[in-house]
Amino acid sequence: METIEKFFKEKTSALSFIELKKDLNIGDMEIKADIPLPIVVDELITEIKENRAQEELKISSIIDGIIYLIGVDPEFKYNHEYREMLYKYNKDIEEIIYLKGMKSIQDSNIDDGLIYFRSLINLNKNSCKALYGYGVALEEKSIIYFNNKDIKKGEKFFIKSTNTFEEILDIDEEYSLAYYKLGYHYLNMKQFKKAQIMWEKFIEIDEDEDRLEEINQKIIEIQDDVDYEEGCNEIFIGNPQRGIDKLLPLKEKYTDWWNLLFMIGFAYRQLGMYDKSKELYEQVLALNPNQLDTLNELGLCLAYMGDFNEAIAKFSSALKMKPNEGEILCNRAMTYLQLGDFKNAEKDIEHALNINPNDEITLQCKREIERQKTE
């Protein structure tokens, strides 16, 4: 995630370093003089303006600076020493960082929230609380980028957020809020079945009544999308009848859902039921006249039905929209071949080979034309 690493790298400019003249002991915490100490510049300036005592300034600024540095640069050479300082400073340092991260998110200070939670993860990679907070902060940052029309950065942060919530489940399969969030993330990615699975697991283990009511309603809302996805998957893996059984009930509810009509038509074509397939493809084109894949599929149906001239007309309409589509060129070439029109068949195949000389299907078509010419 180069974009995200760059984001944190840029944050190092907010740090400055000081060096002690001698070793410093504060309770159980020993600070060696030969280790440079990070300080967040803005915080240091604020403390100086407020005329705080020098030692108080050193302690608070050093601790905040260390937390910040571990968050923005996990590979910094003195991080091992800094880590020891933090735990000696306060045995509950992880909870302190967590609360700082939560407050930052609540105050809409998302950048600081990202740094705090990333720092906490670098201290304790198995902290589900830290990972969850980090995932939320990444999600919020992605929303900011999307709202500012910076789609590429938004997508990077959103994907990293999804991955972070998934990491939680590798550590704790019963962490309900990860399932809650992942359901929404998969929904956003139009992976409806995965969203359903996440939310059904969430319902099994969560106890918050408001959240449970919310997610039960969401599961109801996405059921048709789940059925559509399952039906399409059955068709793609070679079970067209199972796919049709899933999709046909949706057809009664969504008469203008052209993708649905297309998939049912595609399943019927796989079953050799070309009349039904043709009827559905024509319905798709009535809704979306320039749908390229439908024109190609309709051409195939017509060819299988022996209506070669009409099939060629459909392929030609598709090629007007996308002249260099090798698959459609091959389909039209094979249809010309059915009519004994070797000239146009060879023309289409040569065009397809100019686009992709190594395409095996195109080469097979060429060999078939040459075979028939010699008979």
Provide a concise account of the structure shown.
By secondary structure, this protein is mostly helical. The protein is built from 19 helices and four strands.
What secondary-structure arrangement, pairings included, does this model have?
Layout: H1 2-10, E1 15-18, E2 24-26, E3 29-31, E4 37-40, H2 41-49, H3 54-72, H4 79-89, H5 93-106, H6 110-123, H7 128-147, H8 151-171, H9 176-188, H10 192-205, H11 209-236, H12 240-253, H13 258-270, H14 274-287, H15 292-304, H16 308-321, H17 326-338, H18 342-355, H19 360-374
Antiparallel strand pairs: 1-4, 2-3
Helix pairs in contact: 3-4, 3-6, 5-6, 5-7, 6-7, 7-8, 8-9, 9-10, 10-11, 11-12, 12-13, 13-14, 14-15, 15-16, 15-17, 16-17, 17-18, 17-19, 18-19
